[in-house]
Every structure is written in C-alpha cells, then in structure tokens.
C-alpha cells in the first residue's frame, strides 16, 4: 500500500496521527506531515487505512497501482481503438451517467 497526504486539504484534526503515529506527525499548528515516503507494509495496513478512512477532509489517499499498458482499455496496442468509443449503441457497457 502506498499513501499520499495532501497538506493543502488537511484541516489539522489530528486523527491520522492518533491512528498511525508512525506515518503521520503533526506540526506546531496541528497539521499533518507524512513520515517517510508513504509506503506502508502489510503489518501497518489496518492502522493506516483507519487513518485514511477517518480523516474528515479526505486529505489522505491511497495511490493505486498503474494499469499495465496492454491491459488499459484505451491502450494503443488495442486492435481497433474505435471499439472503445462511448456511443449510444454501447451505452449499457459504459454506464448510465452522462
Ligand atoms: S486526519 Fe486528515 S485533517 Fe486531520 S491531521 Fe490528519 S490529514 Fe489532517
């Protein structure tokens, strides 16, 4: 798991440092700082996830793994890129939001 902290969003509630003090510290004004590079080993996953979920302003996000180029639906390796274009005829495949 890899996390990211957006300090521009942090409101200084301090919940993250309470749940996962090894990954978040608070500065003199109570705003969070990420300790380390955001890499979270499996042993600490639960406490960091708790901090992520309890942050009232969603300043902490989990970084997703990159989708391999070949598996991406719009990759250049697809045989016909036009197959992935959203049209009314394939609306059921891509959703009902417009
Ligand atoms: S829980 Fe969220 S708002 Fe509170 S200090 Fe941590 S990052 Fe900032």
From TrEMBL:
Report which superkingdom the organism of origin falls in: Bacteria
Cofactor(s) recorded in Swiss-Prot or TrEMBL: [3Fe-4S] cluster
Give this protein's Gene Ontology molecular function annotations.
3 iron, 4 sulfur cluster binding; metal ion binding
Disordered, as annotated region: 66-98
* SUPFAM superfamilies in alphabetical order: 4Fe-4S ferredoxins
Keywords from UniProt, A to Z, are: 3Fe-4S, Electron transport, Iron, Iron-sulfur, Metal-binding, Transport
* Gene3D superfamilies assigned: 3.30.70.20
Pfam families with a match to the protein in the record: Fer4_15
Question: Matching PANTHER family, A to Z?
Answer: FERREDOXIN
Write down what this protein is called.
Ferredoxin-1
Which organism's genome codes for this protein?
A: Mycobacterium innocens
Q: What is the lineage of its organism?
A: Bacteria, Bacillati, Actinomycetota, Actinomycetes, Mycobacteriales
């Amino acid at each position: 798991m890899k996390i990211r902290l957006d300090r521009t969003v942090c409101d200084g509630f301090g919940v993250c440092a309470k749940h996962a003090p090894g990954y978040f510290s608070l500065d003199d004004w109570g705003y969070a700082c990420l300790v380390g590079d955001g890499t979270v080993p499996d042993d600490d996953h639960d406490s960091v996830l708790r901090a992520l979920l309890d942050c009232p302003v969603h300043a902490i996000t989990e970084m997703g793994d990159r989708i391999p180029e070949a598996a991406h639906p719009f990759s250049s390796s697809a045989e016909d890129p036009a197959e992935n274009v959203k049209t009314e005829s394939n609306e059921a495949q891509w959703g009902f939001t417009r």
